Amino acid sequence: MKASVNxxxxxxxxxxxxxxxxxxxxxxxxxxxxxxxxxxxxYTLHAGEYGITRKNRLSRQDPSxxxxxxxxxxxxFDESFLxxxxxxHQLITTPFNSEESFIRLSGNVLFLxxxxxxxxxxxxxxxxxxxxxxxxxxELLLILLQLEPELAGLFFDYGVPQKIDLEAFxxxxxxxxxxxxxxxxxxxxxxxxxxxxxxxLFNETPSRWLLRKRLEDAYNLLEKxxxxxxxxxxxxxxxxxxxxxxxxxxxFGHNPTDLTGPKRKVAAN
Length: 269
Prior knowledge:
The strands form two sheets. A five-stranded mixed sheet has the order 1-8-3-6-9. It is an alpha+beta fold. It folds into two domains: 5-155, Jelly Rolls; 166-259, Orthogonal Bundle (Arc Repressor Mutant, subunit A), CATH 1.10.10. The protein is built from ten helices and nine strands. It comes from Spirosoma arboris. Residues 164-262 form the HTH araC/xylS-type domain. Keywords: DNA-binding, Transcription, Transcription regulation.
């Protein structure tokens, strides 16, 4: 079987490992196909397509739908860089109307020329020297704003998430493996206010509720859809298969693998 290849040229600050998008990202898929999930929607990107993944969102790539060879280029537009850029070019912005987590961009020859122009700056490891980071990021941002001026309202909005419907947000995003602090921030609340509002709404602590919801989903996927524990635990928000298995057995009294062999009746209490 051919080994998978997943190459990423990252231009800008390092990305966090968690599924919280802290900064705006320009994402270009050079080779392959990938799929992901964000804000209740599934997105698929094919070779040659690109767009903006916006900050302060939860997003996850679906490894089961990634082709064997994937090459991507990611530019990180962090707030420090954007503020410097805005001050330099004295840009005036208007509100950005779309709520999409991934903003697809139309094909344009300027983008293709820009991507080609990056090649001479890569070193032997396929990385770009830090000395050229801001030069190429500024060039890309100028191109984006020339072709899509309304993106200024997205990039140069430095506000924090506002208070939103907690129940709807949590029911949509409970499978994401991020901290309670992140959930609080994304719903426009302090940690203490989040815990208070959460308990008033669900009559349960966030940690207990998240574990229960994820395990109930796991039971359904294993017992009714015949999926394997190793195929589902990551997408359910568990960091390791062993943690998932221990939690599942503690909740239901059986190992998750008991539902994937010859069918056995297990009550989901």
